[in-house]
Fold:
Amino acid sequence: MTSQLTPFTDSTPTDFAVPVVVALQQELGATEVLSGDQISAKYLKDWSDERGGIPLALVRPRNTQQVAQVLRICHVHGQAVTPQGGLTGLAGGAVPSEGSVVLSMERMSGITAIDTGSATMTVLAGTPLQVIQEAAQQAGFFYALDLGARGSCQIGGNLSTNAGGNRVIRYGMARELVLGLEVVLADGTVLSMLNQMVKNNAGPDLKHLFIGSEGTLGVITQAVLRLHPGVSGANTALVALTDFDAVVQFLRHAQQSLSGQVSAFEVMWPDFYRAAIAMPGSRAPLPAHHPVYVLLDMQGATPEAEAERFQAMLEQAMEQGWVLDAAIAQSHAETQDFWALRDSVSEMLQVNAPTINFDLSVPISKIGNCVEKLMAVMTARFAHLKVVFFGHVGDGNIHAVVGPIPQDGTTEHQLEEAFYAIVRDFSGSVSAEHGIGLHKKQWLGHSRSPAEMALMKVLKNAMDPGNILNPGKIL
Structure:
């Protein structure tokens, strides 16, 4: 049951009289509990277009003990809590519910330990992803999770949404890159599961309950991350292909020829490629008239020594007729230019705002047909809107950006209804890597059976009987 307390508004003379706020102040200190105008607007939204309610208070704990104190007090008072990370989510998972206590992890940032023998790094949940990547590199290792928001997203949020990103094809999702967690449950109980071992079958691996649950079952406070051998660079190429069937054949050829070392395999349909090369400062490594494009790289400790094998793989693909043209990056600067095309989606979002950002997945062999059907829907029903398709196709993930969306109250829903119906017909997922949050919960049944959703509710009721943790999200 969520709190029945009157939510804070600008007209509330003083919310320090609210019992839960008084209790939080007494436990943490008066200056540690912010309210009203003290709460910056940045805590009211994430990167999605979802808008939540006005929070009762904002707390920014400095350690696990304080997180436990906050949750214990809120549990006693039946007070809703909205956990927040870097606020880079696209599904509204960190948007505060009306009258909730916002629990920001931004002060819990830092690297606790790096164990070079075990190839692990222990970090606080509020640590930015880029800080972790750089610390791993300095220690001679590589932390494989990578996404465009690396400079501002936090590892706790990455794990709570089971983030994917650019390197999934080789290293897996966030779930595969964490060995242990410390989590605080709704009643303030601390679960210390900071396992450093790859093999540990002493009963069910409980950390998986919290990875991907978007803060609805517990709040992640620390994580033991799995590191990989360091890399010093990559062989990178932008490739034009005949059609999507050729993309799949090329993917399997590259993986086999390069012994599983393909680190990224990003597909861009022509609409995306043309939009990317039109951005200021961009250049076109290949002509814009080809049916489909792939950006791939092979990371390694000595990329120069692997260059010949990489080029031979491309030549073999051209001989097979899959590849029409290819540009191989000749320097680190050219590699960055190639990746700038793929990362230009952030500029596209601004140019075409407001947009809908679809994050879909279907079996790899069906992606070509699925995108054809999505394009057909756009042509038949939404021809007045721009759309670009791209994705991490090596792991079955399709992204589509549609916009500018008329603010008529119907177009957005009609688009989602049409797209998600197609994804359901392909036995796909309405969320490949962005999570469900507020934005997609009405479509969850397209990808999860009634029995699965019932079990999710059982877990929620058992672990958070008062429904205080991120209420209204996912289910």
